[in-house]
Amino acid sequence: MTDDRDVLRDVWFGRIPTCFTLSQDEITEREAEPYYLLLPRVSYLMLVTDKAKKHFQKVMRQEDVGEMWFEYEGVPLKWHYPIGLLFDLHASNTALPWNIIVHFKNFPESELLHCLTKDAVEAHFMSCIKEADALKHKSQVINEMQKKDHKQLWMGLQNDKFDQFWAINRKLMEYPTEEGGFRYIPFRIYQPLNERPFIQKLFRPISSEGHPHNLGDLLKEMFPAAVTPEDMEKQYQVVIHGIEPMLETPVQWLSEHLSYPDNFLHISIIPLPRD
Amino acid sequence: METPSSGRDWRKHIVRQLQHRDRRQKLHFEDLIHSYNQLLMKSNIVQLWRDKHLAATPSLSPEPQNVVSLQSTHRKELIEMYQANGELVQEVFSLSKQHKHREEDLQVSHSRLVELEVRLSELEGERERLLERFEELEKANARVKEDYDNLQQLYRSQWEQLLKREVEGTELIQSMIDIKVQAARDLNYRNEKPKRVQEKNLKKDLAVVSRVPISMDTGVFPPVQKLLPEAARHQEIKIFKPFRSSRKRANTSFIGVDCSPTNFCSVARIPAKVRFSLEAHDGEVNAVKFSPNSKILATGGSDRKVKLWDIVGGMLQLVKILEGSNDGVTSIEFDPSGLHLLAGSYDNTARLWSLKDCELKHTLSGHSAKVTAAKFKFYCREAVTGSHDRTIKVWDLRKAACVSSIPLPSRCSDIVCSDYLIISGHFDEKVRLWDTRSGTKTDEIPLQGKVTSLDINSERTQLLSCSRDDLLKVVDLRMNETRQELRAEGFKCGADWTKAIFSPDGSYAVVGSSDGVLYIWDTLTGKLETSLVGQHKSSINAVSWSLSGEYVVSVDRSRLASLWTDC
């Protein structure tokens, strides 16, 4: 369906306007102007911030430049989360553009992972895909693929090539027709302030009776609080890719169309702001 | 559980939501951020320039104007540099093209070089091969040459051997011939033995008979006749025995000449006319002689033949031709038995034929010029030949070898033999007498002309000589004095070999002259008895009177032989 295709394209080409500001702590030779960027939702911070890094390094001395890390409202941003997820989780209801503070020193060892090269990002990305396929197809599809296909997935993501990426990715979105869907749906449910990083459990897209599950079923099972009864106020927002899909949306469809490039359905559950 | 409508609902919801999100988050900010980034970039560039110029020229006035001029100058510089860059690029391009061309040429010449090298090696190889071939051919040639030389030598040696063998062969043949000839001679000699014995006996008988005085009466005949038939029978018996073998040998129908003796007539009848004449030879007829038994006449001519004639019915009939002489016959003599014939010839030889089988018995060769006279000496034992080489040779007829040779001062024209004398006539107008016992000259009779012929009478007492001065002389041998000189008018001695003879009884002398006329003298009186003209047109060479006295035969130069009788 063309709608589905449009959905895929809109998901892929989603952007977030960001303003990178150098931290006040950093020693600069001159005043550094803020750097604005439209960050792709589906990518990762470390892949798309090279220009910002260069921009800020111009005003700094060489010896002061350490590993770059980002922070929003005091929260160090994990680079191994997709940018869209980070935004939805931390700043979905705030004013745009998204203001990120750039740090070059005082790397928070306890909270962030080091990311010295892009290979770390690639390794993380590929492992996520493999994990997703393990849930979906018992790793059959990903293992049948050649190394060049894996590389093509990564290059497609890195260079923002929708067709290149989806040429391979659609294989990962196939399922045997008799099954009616994947084996299990790869998803993660995130909360902004929580001990646990995310909720990930086995969840079948088709019920034992044969009818497909929807988002409501998933939430009921994983995060029942998110599903508000009719008479009560809505407490949580269930955001995927910056939108709130209806609870009737089948999870199989969601997994096929609203997954991130790493084939996971990253769901943010944000408490509704009380104002 | 999804109804299509509800399915579409949530889908639509999602689509709307996404669009809304994008509008909010992306679209509003897109252009703004883009412009902002461009400005940022420009300000960075300006910063850079400012930094550069501050470092280069600190004393710079406020920035904005300078910046603009700087910008323009920099832009110009940039344009110039771009132009220079372009030119350099062009040069690089052309140079690289040239380089390429050079490379190509180099490649081409390189490949050509390789080709030529290959060709060179090929040619070298070929040259090597050709040299080898040439050497081989030379070697082969040398070998062939060697073979050829060897063969040549071999051929030469073989040829020499062949020549040697041929010489040996001819020698062998010659020796064989000699042996055969010797054997033949031995055989002949053996065959002649009985003949000789027979002759001896005959001689004895004749001696016996001769002692008996012979008178002119016919009354004498019977005793003679008696005797003779005995002798004849004796002879005949003797004749037949030895010749049996020869008869077996010979194939001819006519074996021998009939040698039976006939009547011995001592009366010489003067011939009166020509009874018969014929062409006897193919050339000059040089000699004529009756055989002792009057039956056979022998003529010899320059046609090299000795012809034997029989007088039958007053005519000459050719009985036999004796061949063997290699040149004209000069003189003929029968031996006293009539069995042998001795003829001298121009070919420097004298030949002896046996008349029984008409075979050539001996050839007496040794003279170096023509033999003018050949006479028997002691019957068949010895012969005497005189020749133009100024020698007289005595031959032993058994061996057919020359016993002695008497050198003479002059050529001998004729010879007669008596018991112990050899009388020879010479061209130096002398007649010489030789004693055979002592072997020396006893006497010499001078004449006035070349002696052409000699004759001796049957008693051996008188000698008749004919000489070129047309004179005949009768000489007494016992007294050695000239008895008579016979001359005649019209008589001319025709040749150097004109023969004059006694009549059988010695009372007449007859000779032929150069004009073909026969002259007869009486020897007792010395007067010309008669001169006979016959059929002769040319000079008469020789005359012969049969022992019976009946016939006279004359032969002349134009091949004619005439038979004269008195009736």
Automatic annotation (TrEMBL), chain A:
One of its GO terms (molecular function) is Atg8-family ligase activity. Residues 118-174 form the Autophagy protein ATG5 alpha-helical bundle region domain. One of its GO terms (cellular component) is phagophore assembly site membrane. It is found in: Cytoplasm; Preautophagosomal structure membrane. GO terms for biological process: apoptotic process; autophagosome assembly; autophagy of mitochondrion; cellular response to nitrogen starvation; immune system process; negative regulation of programmed cell death; piecemeal microautophagy of the nucleus. Keywords: Acetylation, Apoptosis, Autophagy, Cytoplasm, Immunity, Isopeptide bond, Membrane, Ubl conjugation. It comes from the Eukaryota. Residues 11-104 form the Autophagy protein ATG5 UblA domain. Residues 184-269 form the Autophagy protein ATG5 UblB domain. It is a peripheral membrane protein. Pfam families: ATG5_HBR, ATG5_UblA, ATG5_UblB. Signal peptide: none annotated. Involved in autophagic vesicle formation. Belongs to the ATG5 family. Forms a conjugate with ATG12. Part of the minor complex composed of 4 sets of ATG12-ATG5 and ATG16L1 (400 kDa); this complex interacts with ATG3 leading to disruption of ATG7 interaction and promotion of ATG8-like proteins lipidation. Forms an 800-kDa complex composed of ATG12-ATG5 and ATG16L2. The ATG12-ATG5 conjugate interacts with RAB33A; this interaction is bridged by ATG16L1 and promotes ATG12-ATG5-ATG16L1 complex recruitment to phagophores. Interacts with TECPR1; the interaction is direct and does not take place when ATG16L1 is associated with the ATG5-ATG12 conjugate. Conjugated with ATG12. This is Autophagy protein 5. It comes from Chiloscyllium punctatum (Brownbanded bambooshark).
